[in-house]
Amino acid sequence: MDENVADEIMREVDVDAGCEIVEEEQEIKLIDIELEEEFNANNAAEEISKENDVSPIREVQQTVPTTDDPMLSVLTFRVWFLGMLSCVLLSFFNTFLRYRMRKLALKQGGLGAN
User: Fold this and answer.
1) Is the separation of the CB atoms in 67 and 54 below 8 Å?
2) pLDDT tens, position by position, 73-89
3) Which one of 8, 10, 68, 105 counts the least CB within 10 Å of its CB?
């Protein structure tokens, strides 16, 4: 009799385990479907943005690429010149304004009083 009880328990465990496996497979399928829908939505958004990047002017379409070249350097003469010029001018103005009775300072957000 103990063997019959043990067999019944094993069958119940096998059935429960089988149900859990089926449920896990269904969850995995749902996740796969959600990921596929998200992927398709992202591709559709990329296609729309590519369509918006196209210029209506023919000469611009022929001369300006719609993608960025990651091999181009961003450290150009213009960047260094404008960066150094702004640093020199702003430091001069901050030093000049320091000698006022009510001190002013040029900050990132704009002009501020100390």
Assistant:
1) no
2) 889 999 999 999 999 99
3) 68
CA 10 to CA 15: how far, in whole Å?
Answer: 9
CA distances (Å), 82 to each of 8, 66, 72, in order? 82, 27, 19
- For the chain, the domains span 1-65, 73-114
- The pTM score is 0.37
Cα→Cα distances 4→1, 15, 24, 75, Å? 5, 16, 30, 81
